[in-house]
Protein backbone atom coordinates (compact mmCIF):
# COMPACT_ATOMS: atom_id res chain seq x y z
CA UNK A 1 0.00 0.00 0.00
CA UNK A 2 1.22 3.51 -0.80
CA UNK A 3 -0.22 6.95 -0.19
CA UNK A 4 0.16 10.40 -1.73
CA UNK A 5 -1.03 13.92 -1.05
CA UNK A 6 -1.31 16.79 -3.52
CA UNK A 7 -2.55 20.35 -3.36
CA UNK A 8 -4.33 20.14 -6.74
CA UNK A 9 -5.93 17.01 -8.26
CA UNK A 10 -8.28 16.64 -11.23
CA UNK A 11 -11.14 14.39 -10.12
CA UNK A 12 -14.21 13.39 -12.18
CA UNK A 13 -16.07 16.26 -10.49
CA UNK A 14 -13.37 18.79 -11.40
CA UNK A 15 -10.27 20.27 -9.83
CA UNK A 16 -10.05 19.52 -6.10
CA UNK A 17 -7.67 20.78 -3.42
CA UNK A 18 -5.75 19.00 -0.71
CA UNK A 19 -6.41 15.49 -1.98
CA UNK A 20 -5.11 12.34 -0.34
CA UNK A 21 -4.68 9.26 -2.57
CA UNK A 22 -4.21 5.76 -1.19
CA UNK A 23 -3.26 2.95 -3.57
CA UNK A 24 -3.40 -0.77 -2.89
CA UNK A 25 -2.81 -3.60 -5.35
CA UNK A 26 -2.52 -1.14 -8.22
CA UNK A 27 -5.87 0.60 -7.62
CA UNK A 28 -7.12 3.67 -5.83
CA UNK A 29 -8.75 2.69 -2.55
CA UNK A 30 -9.03 6.17 -1.04
CA UNK A 31 -9.51 9.48 -2.87
CA UNK A 32 -10.16 12.11 -0.20
CA UNK A 33 -10.41 15.84 -1.06
CA UNK A 34 -9.72 18.52 1.57
CA UNK A 35 -7.65 16.03 3.52
CA UNK A 36 -4.78 16.57 5.89
CA UNK A 37 -1.47 15.12 4.77
CA UNK A 38 -0.38 12.08 6.79
CA UNK A 39 3.26 11.65 7.78
CA UNK A 40 3.67 8.65 5.45
CA UNK A 41 2.14 10.39 2.42
CA UNK A 42 4.39 11.24 -0.51
CA UNK A 43 3.79 14.89 -1.38
CA UNK A 44 3.24 15.36 -5.10
CA UNK A 45 4.34 18.64 -6.68
CA UNK A 46 2.23 20.54 -9.16
CA UNK A 47 -1.14 19.41 -10.50
CA UNK A 48 -2.19 15.76 -10.53
CA UNK A 49 -4.04 14.55 -13.62
CA UNK A 50 -5.36 11.10 -14.48
CA UNK A 51 -3.04 9.17 -16.77
CA UNK A 52 -3.35 10.23 -20.40
CA UNK A 53 -4.25 7.88 -23.24
CA UNK A 54 -2.63 7.76 -26.66
CA UNK A 55 -5.39 5.93 -28.50
CA UNK A 56 -3.74 5.77 -31.93
CA UNK A 57 -0.06 5.02 -32.50
CA UNK A 58 2.22 3.63 -35.20
CA UNK A 59 5.56 3.03 -33.48
CA UNK A 60 7.49 2.43 -36.69
CA UNK A 61 6.56 5.84 -38.11
CA UNK A 62 8.50 7.58 -35.31
CA UNK A 63 11.52 7.11 -37.61
CA UNK A 64 10.09 9.75 -39.98
CA UNK A 65 9.94 12.63 -37.50
CA UNK A 66 11.86 15.63 -38.75
CA UNK A 67 12.57 13.96 -42.10
CA UNK A 68 9.34 14.50 -44.04
CA UNK A 69 7.73 17.64 -42.63
CA UNK A 70 9.03 19.95 -45.39
CA UNK A 71 7.94 17.72 -48.29
CA UNK A 72 5.37 19.58 -50.41
CA UNK A 73 3.91 16.76 -52.47
CA UNK A 74 0.73 15.90 -50.54
CA UNK A 75 2.26 12.90 -48.80
CA UNK A 76 3.80 11.09 -51.78
CA UNK A 77 7.33 11.29 -50.38
CA UNK A 78 6.08 10.55 -46.86
CA UNK A 79 4.39 7.38 -48.05
CA UNK A 80 7.52 6.21 -49.92
CA UNK A 81 9.69 6.83 -46.85
CA UNK A 82 7.16 5.11 -44.59
CA UNK A 83 7.26 2.01 -46.79
CA UNK A 84 11.06 2.11 -46.78
CA UNK A 85 11.07 2.05 -42.98
CA UNK A 86 8.57 -0.82 -42.96
CA UNK A 87 10.86 -2.82 -45.25
CA UNK A 88 13.85 -2.42 -42.91
CA UNK A 89 12.33 -3.51 -39.61
CA UNK A 90 12.69 -6.93 -37.98
CA UNK A 91 11.60 -7.97 -34.46
CA UNK A 92 14.86 -6.88 -32.82
CA UNK A 93 14.86 -3.45 -34.45
CA UNK A 94 11.16 -3.08 -33.74
CA UNK A 95 11.79 -3.83 -30.07
CA UNK A 96 14.52 -1.20 -29.82
CA UNK A 97 12.37 1.45 -31.52
CA UNK A 98 9.24 0.58 -29.54
CA UNK A 99 11.13 0.69 -26.24
CA UNK A 100 12.40 4.20 -26.97
CA UNK A 101 9.07 5.42 -28.38
CA UNK A 102 6.98 4.10 -25.50
CA UNK A 103 9.48 5.60 -23.06
CA UNK A 104 9.08 8.95 -24.82
CA UNK A 105 5.32 8.58 -24.38
CA UNK A 106 5.75 7.83 -20.68
CA UNK A 107 7.84 10.96 -20.22
CA UNK A 108 4.99 12.90 -21.85
CA UNK A 109 2.41 11.61 -19.35
CA UNK A 110 0.94 8.82 -21.48
CA UNK A 111 0.03 5.80 -19.40
CA UNK A 112 -1.80 3.69 -22.01
CA UNK A 113 -1.30 3.39 -25.76
CA UNK A 114 -3.28 1.79 -28.55
CA UNK A 115 -0.88 0.46 -31.17
CA UNK A 116 -2.50 0.18 -34.62
CA UNK A 117 -0.31 -2.74 -35.54
CA UNK A 118 -0.16 -3.95 -39.13
CA UNK A 119 3.57 -4.63 -39.62
CA UNK A 120 3.13 -8.35 -38.97
CA UNK A 121 5.42 -10.43 -41.18
CA UNK A 122 8.86 -10.51 -42.77
CA UNK A 123 9.92 -9.08 -46.14
CA UNK A 124 7.69 -10.21 -48.97
CA UNK A 125 5.20 -11.55 -46.43
CA UNK A 126 7.48 -14.37 -45.21
CA UNK A 127 6.40 -15.70 -41.81
CA UNK A 128 8.54 -15.57 -38.70
CA UNK A 129 8.78 -18.79 -36.67
CA UNK A 130 6.60 -17.00 -34.15
CA UNK A 131 3.84 -15.48 -36.34
CA UNK A 132 3.33 -12.79 -33.69
CA UNK A 133 7.01 -11.90 -33.35
CA UNK A 134 6.51 -8.26 -34.33
CA UNK A 135 3.55 -7.83 -31.98
CA UNK A 136 5.50 -9.58 -29.22
CA UNK A 137 8.24 -6.95 -29.64
CA UNK A 138 5.68 -4.21 -29.02
CA UNK A 139 4.27 -6.02 -25.98
CA UNK A 140 7.72 -6.57 -24.49
CA UNK A 141 8.67 -2.93 -25.03
CA UNK A 142 5.53 -1.64 -23.32
CA UNK A 143 6.08 -4.02 -20.40
CA UNK A 144 9.68 -2.90 -19.96
CA UNK A 145 8.67 0.77 -20.09
CA UNK A 146 5.79 0.14 -17.69
CA UNK A 147 2.85 1.53 -19.69
CA UNK A 148 -0.37 -0.19 -20.64
CA UNK A 149 -0.83 -1.41 -24.22
CA UNK A 150 -3.87 -2.33 -26.24
CA UNK A 151 -2.52 -4.18 -29.27
CA UNK A 152 -4.90 -3.28 -32.10
CA UNK A 153 -3.77 -6.06 -34.40
CA UNK A 154 -4.86 -4.91 -37.83
CA UNK A 155 -6.51 -6.76 -40.71
CA UNK A 156 -5.01 -5.65 -44.04
CA UNK A 157 -5.94 -7.55 -47.21
CA UNK A 158 -6.15 -5.16 -50.19
CA UNK A 159 -3.84 -2.55 -51.72
CA UNK A 160 -6.40 0.24 -52.11
CA UNK A 161 -9.82 1.14 -53.49
CA UNK A 162 -10.82 2.86 -56.73
CA UNK A 163 -14.11 3.35 -58.53
CA UNK A 164 -13.48 -0.03 -60.18
CA UNK A 165 -12.82 -1.98 -57.00
CA UNK A 166 -10.04 -3.08 -54.69
CA UNK A 167 -6.41 -3.21 -55.77
CA UNK A 168 -3.94 -6.04 -55.12
CA UNK A 169 -1.27 -5.65 -52.46
CA UNK A 170 2.02 -4.14 -53.53
CA UNK A 171 5.42 -5.45 -52.43
CA UNK A 172 5.70 -3.81 -49.03
CA UNK A 173 2.05 -4.40 -48.18
CA UNK A 174 2.71 -8.14 -48.27
CA UNK A 175 4.25 -7.67 -44.82
CA UNK A 176 0.94 -6.34 -43.56
CA UNK A 177 -1.35 -9.13 -44.76
CA UNK A 178 -2.32 -12.55 -43.41
CA UNK A 179 -4.04 -13.38 -46.70
CA UNK A 180 -7.53 -13.92 -45.27
CA UNK A 181 -9.77 -13.00 -42.38
CA UNK A 182 -9.52 -16.53 -41.02
CA UNK A 183 -5.70 -16.52 -41.00
CA UNK A 184 -5.65 -13.12 -39.30
CA UNK A 185 -8.11 -14.25 -36.64
CA UNK A 186 -6.21 -17.48 -36.00
CA UNK A 187 -2.91 -15.62 -35.56
CA UNK A 188 -4.31 -12.95 -33.27
CA UNK A 189 -6.05 -15.55 -31.09
CA UNK A 190 -2.59 -16.65 -29.96
CA UNK A 191 -1.83 -13.27 -28.35
CA UNK A 192 -2.02 -13.65 -24.57
CA UNK A 193 -3.28 -10.83 -22.38
CA UNK A 194 -1.39 -9.70 -19.28
CA UNK A 195 -1.84 -7.15 -16.54
CA UNK A 196 -0.53 -4.43 -18.88
CA UNK A 197 -1.59 -5.87 -22.25
CA UNK A 198 -5.08 -6.10 -23.71
CA UNK A 199 -5.87 -7.66 -27.06
CA UNK A 200 -7.83 -5.46 -29.42
CA UNK A 201 -8.36 -5.48 -33.17
CA UNK A 202 -8.49 -3.17 -36.14
CA UNK A 203 -9.84 -3.34 -39.66
CA UNK A 204 -7.39 -1.09 -41.42
CA UNK A 205 -9.88 0.76 -43.65
CA UNK A 206 -12.44 0.25 -46.37
CA UNK A 207 -9.51 0.82 -48.72
CA UNK A 208 -7.65 -2.22 -47.42
CA UNK A 209 -10.53 -4.55 -46.51
CA UNK A 210 -13.57 -5.30 -48.65
CA UNK A 211 -17.14 -4.91 -47.46
CA UNK A 212 -17.60 -8.66 -47.06
CA UNK A 213 -14.33 -9.22 -45.22
CA UNK A 214 -14.97 -6.26 -42.90
CA UNK A 215 -18.35 -7.71 -41.92
CA UNK A 216 -16.86 -11.14 -41.26
CA UNK A 217 -13.95 -9.72 -39.25
CA UNK A 218 -16.27 -7.70 -37.03
CA UNK A 219 -18.22 -10.86 -36.20
CA UNK A 220 -15.04 -12.66 -35.18
CA UNK A 221 -13.78 -9.78 -33.04
CA UNK A 222 -16.83 -9.98 -30.78
CA UNK A 223 -16.70 -7.68 -27.76
CA UNK A 224 -13.05 -6.66 -28.06
CA UNK A 225 -12.13 -3.06 -28.94
CA UNK A 226 -12.32 -2.62 -32.73
CA UNK A 227 -10.75 0.37 -34.46
CA UNK A 228 -10.84 1.41 -38.11
CA UNK A 229 -9.78 4.35 -40.27
CA UNK A 230 -12.98 6.09 -41.37
CA UNK A 231 -13.22 9.04 -43.78
CA UNK A 232 -9.63 10.07 -43.20
CA UNK A 233 -9.40 11.82 -46.58
CA UNK A 234 -11.89 13.01 -49.23
CA UNK A 235 -10.39 10.52 -51.72
CA UNK A 236 -11.45 7.65 -49.45
CA UNK A 237 -15.02 8.95 -49.33
CA UNK A 238 -15.10 9.41 -53.08
CA UNK A 239 -13.79 5.92 -53.84
CA UNK A 240 -16.29 4.38 -51.42
CA UNK A 241 -19.14 6.37 -52.93
CA UNK A 242 -18.18 5.43 -56.47
CA UNK A 243 -17.68 1.72 -55.80
CA UNK A 244 -20.08 0.95 -52.95
CA UNK A 245 -22.54 3.82 -53.45
CA UNK A 246 -22.36 5.00 -49.85
CA UNK A 247 -20.12 6.73 -47.32
CA UNK A 248 -17.73 4.55 -45.29
CA UNK A 249 -19.77 5.08 -42.12
CA UNK A 250 -23.04 4.19 -43.85
CA UNK A 251 -21.40 1.07 -45.26
CA UNK A 252 -20.17 0.01 -41.84
CA UNK A 253 -23.63 0.55 -40.37
CA UNK A 254 -25.18 -1.52 -43.17
CA UNK A 255 -22.89 -4.51 -42.54
CA UNK A 256 -23.12 -4.48 -38.75
CA UNK A 257 -19.63 -3.23 -37.88
CA UNK A 258 -20.69 -0.23 -35.80
CA UNK A 259 -21.27 -0.78 -32.08
CA UNK A 260 -20.25 0.24 -28.58
CA UNK A 261 -16.75 -1.24 -28.96
CA UNK A 262 -16.13 0.43 -32.34
CA UNK A 263 -13.84 3.43 -32.71
CA UNK A 264 -13.58 5.45 -35.92
CA UNK A 265 -10.05 6.82 -36.30
CA UNK A 266 -9.54 10.32 -37.73
CA UNK A 267 -13.16 10.60 -38.98
CA UNK A 268 -12.10 13.87 -40.56
CA UNK A 269 -14.68 14.11 -43.34
CA UNK A 270 -17.98 12.93 -41.88
CA UNK A 271 -21.44 13.93 -43.02
CA UNK A 272 -24.17 14.84 -40.54
CA UNK A 273 -25.71 11.45 -41.30
CA UNK A 274 -22.38 9.77 -40.47
CA UNK A 275 -22.23 11.52 -37.10
CA UNK A 276 -25.79 10.47 -36.31
CA UNK A 277 -24.99 6.86 -37.15
CA UNK A 278 -21.92 6.85 -34.91
CA UNK A 279 -23.98 8.31 -32.08
CA UNK A 280 -26.92 5.94 -32.59
CA UNK A 281 -24.58 2.92 -32.43
CA UNK A 282 -22.72 4.28 -29.34
CA UNK A 283 -19.40 4.39 -31.20
CA UNK A 284 -16.33 6.40 -30.31
CA UNK A 285 -13.90 8.51 -32.35
CA UNK A 286 -10.16 9.08 -32.01
CA UNK A 287 -8.58 12.12 -33.65
CA UNK A 288 -4.90 12.98 -34.05
CA UNK A 289 -4.67 16.77 -34.46
CA UNK A 290 -0.93 17.18 -34.99
CA UNK A 291 -0.79 14.32 -37.49
CA UNK A 292 -3.86 15.55 -39.33
CA UNK A 293 -2.23 18.97 -39.55
CA UNK A 294 1.06 17.51 -40.76
CA UNK A 295 -0.63 15.47 -43.50
CA UNK A 296 -3.00 18.33 -44.45
CA UNK A 297 -5.92 15.94 -44.01
CA UNK A 298 -8.40 18.39 -42.50
CA UNK A 299 -10.04 19.21 -39.17
CA UNK A 300 -12.45 16.72 -37.51
CA UNK A 301 -15.78 18.09 -36.27
CA UNK A 302 -15.03 17.46 -32.58
CA UNK A 303 -17.65 19.82 -31.13
CA UNK A 304 -20.37 18.32 -33.34
CA UNK A 305 -19.31 14.81 -32.34
CA UNK A 306 -19.35 15.65 -28.63
CA UNK A 307 -22.72 17.37 -28.96
CA UNK A 308 -24.08 14.21 -30.61
CA UNK A 309 -22.87 12.15 -27.65
CA UNK A 310 -19.87 10.57 -29.40
CA UNK A 311 -16.83 10.35 -27.05
CA UNK A 312 -13.64 11.65 -28.67
CA UNK A 313 -10.14 10.49 -27.72
CA UNK A 314 -6.74 11.61 -28.96
CA UNK A 315 -3.74 9.90 -30.55
CA UNK A 316 -0.32 10.81 -31.88
CA UNK A 317 -0.52 8.59 -34.99
CA UNK A 318 2.78 9.05 -36.87
CA UNK A 319 4.45 10.80 -33.89
CA UNK A 320 5.29 14.09 -35.56
CA UNK A 321 4.84 15.13 -31.92
CA UNK A 322 4.39 13.09 -28.77
CA UNK A 323 2.75 15.62 -26.51
CA UNK A 324 -0.80 14.98 -25.29
CA UNK A 325 -1.11 18.55 -24.01
CA UNK A 326 -0.62 19.83 -27.55
CA UNK A 327 -3.16 17.31 -28.88
CA UNK A 328 -5.77 18.30 -26.28
CA UNK A 329 -5.27 22.02 -26.84
CA UNK A 330 -5.53 21.65 -30.60
CA UNK A 331 -9.06 20.28 -30.24
CA UNK A 332 -10.16 23.64 -28.83
CA UNK A 333 -7.90 25.76 -31.06
CA UNK A 334 -9.23 24.12 -34.23
CA UNK A 335 -12.76 24.84 -33.04
CA UNK A 336 -11.86 28.47 -32.36
CA UNK A 337 -10.42 28.95 -35.85
CA UNK A 338 -13.41 27.31 -37.52
CA UNK A 339 -16.10 29.06 -35.50
CA UNK A 340 -14.62 32.40 -34.51
CA UNK A 341 -15.55 31.62 -30.91
CA UNK A 342 -13.57 30.74 -27.80
CA UNK A 343 -14.54 28.20 -25.18
CA UNK A 344 -15.95 25.67 -27.62
CA UNK A 345 -14.67 22.72 -25.56
CA UNK A 346 -14.32 23.21 -21.82
CA UNK A 347 -11.17 22.30 -19.93
CA UNK A 348 -12.83 19.32 -18.18
CA UNK A 349 -14.06 18.10 -21.59
CA UNK A 350 -10.57 18.41 -23.07
CA UNK A 351 -9.16 16.40 -20.18
CA UNK A 352 -11.79 13.70 -20.69
CA UNK A 353 -10.76 13.53 -24.35
CA UNK A 354 -7.16 13.04 -23.26
CA UNK A 355 -7.88 10.49 -20.56
CA UNK A 356 -11.10 8.57 -19.94
CA UNK A 357 -12.34 8.59 -23.55
CA UNK A 358 -9.08 7.11 -24.76
CA UNK A 359 -9.00 4.52 -21.98
CA UNK A 360 -12.53 3.42 -22.88
CA UNK A 361 -11.76 3.28 -26.59
CA UNK A 362 -8.88 0.91 -25.80
CA UNK A 363 -10.97 -1.35 -23.57
CA UNK A 364 -9.64 -0.11 -20.21
CA UNK A 365 -12.98 0.75 -18.66
CA UNK A 366 -11.38 0.71 -15.21
CA UNK A 367 -9.05 3.64 -15.93
CA UNK A 368 -8.76 7.22 -17.08
CA UNK A 369 -10.08 8.86 -13.91
CA UNK A 370 -8.94 9.26 -10.33
CA UNK A 371 -11.60 7.49 -8.27
CA UNK A 372 -11.78 4.57 -5.81
CA UNK A 373 -11.69 1.16 -7.48
CA UNK A 374 -10.04 2.36 -10.70
CA UNK A 375 -6.48 1.55 -11.74
CA UNK A 376 -4.01 3.93 -10.13
CA UNK A 377 -2.68 5.65 -13.23
CA UNK A 378 -1.86 9.33 -12.74
CA UNK A 379 0.68 12.02 -13.58
CA UNK A 380 1.88 15.28 -12.08
CA UNK A 381 2.54 18.48 -14.01
CA UNK A 382 4.92 21.19 -12.83
CA UNK A 383 3.37 24.57 -11.98
CA UNK A 384 6.74 26.29 -11.68
CA UNK A 385 8.42 25.71 -15.05
CA UNK A 386 9.27 28.45 -17.53
CA UNK A 387 6.11 27.55 -19.45
CA UNK A 388 3.67 27.14 -16.56
CA UNK A 389 4.87 29.74 -14.03
CA UNK A 390 1.93 31.99 -13.20
CA UNK A 391 -0.68 29.61 -14.59
CA UNK A 392 -3.77 28.76 -12.60
CA UNK A 393 -3.92 25.09 -11.71
CA UNK A 394 -7.27 24.93 -13.53
CA UNK A 395 -5.74 26.28 -16.76
CA UNK A 396 -2.32 24.62 -16.83
CA UNK A 397 -3.53 22.29 -19.59
CA UNK A 398 -3.23 25.36 -21.87
CA UNK A 399 0.36 26.15 -20.93
CA UNK A 400 2.03 22.84 -20.08
CA UNK A 401 3.96 20.62 -22.44
CA UNK A 402 5.34 17.11 -22.25
CA UNK A 403 8.50 18.61 -20.75
CA UNK A 404 6.53 19.68 -17.68
CA UNK A 405 5.53 16.17 -16.62
CA UNK A 406 7.26 15.38 -13.34
CA UNK A 407 5.81 12.06 -12.18
CA UNK A 408 4.08 9.18 -13.96
CA UNK A 409 2.45 6.35 -12.04
CA UNK A 410 0.93 3.25 -13.69
CA UNK A 411 -0.92 0.79 -11.50
CA UNK A 412 0.58 2.40 -8.44
CA UNK A 413 4.13 1.96 -9.74
CA UNK A 414 6.24 5.08 -10.31
CA UNK A 415 7.84 4.85 -13.77
CA UNK A 416 8.82 8.52 -14.17
CA UNK A 417 10.14 10.60 -11.28
CA UNK A 418 11.36 14.21 -11.44
CA UNK A 419 10.97 14.08 -15.20
CA UNK A 420 13.27 11.06 -15.59
CA UNK A 421 12.24 7.59 -16.69
CA UNK A 422 13.43 4.61 -14.67
CA UNK A 423 15.52 3.71 -17.74
CA UNK A 424 17.49 6.91 -17.35
CA UNK A 425 17.92 9.22 -20.36
CA UNK A 426 15.63 8.18 -23.23
CA UNK A 427 17.24 10.23 -26.03
CA UNK A 428 20.28 7.89 -26.32
CA UNK A 429 17.91 4.91 -26.65
CA UNK A 430 16.08 6.68 -29.45
CA UNK A 431 19.25 7.74 -31.25
CA UNK A 432 20.61 4.20 -31.11
CA UNK A 433 17.37 2.66 -32.41
CA UNK A 434 17.11 5.18 -35.25
CA UNK A 435 20.73 4.65 -36.21
CA UNK A 436 20.32 0.87 -36.32
CA UNK A 437 17.22 1.14 -38.50
CA UNK A 438 18.77 3.60 -40.94
CA UNK A 439 21.82 1.36 -41.29
CA UNK A 440 19.71 -1.76 -41.92
CA UNK A 441 19.41 -2.98 -45.49
From TrEMBL:
The keyword Hydrolase applies. Pfam families: Amidohydro_1. Residues 47-414 form the Amidohydrolase-related domain. The keyword 4Fe-4S does not apply. Its EC number is 3.5.3.13. It is an enzyme of class 3 (hydrolase). SUPFAM superfamilies: Composite domain of metallo-dependent hydrolases, Metallo-dependent hydrolases. Keywords: Hydrolase. One of its GO terms (molecular function) is formimidoylglutamate deiminase activity. This is Formimidoylglutamate deiminase. It comes from Candidatus Phosphoribacter hodrii. The lineage of its organism: Bacteria, Bacillati, Actinomycetota, Actinomycetes, Micrococcales.
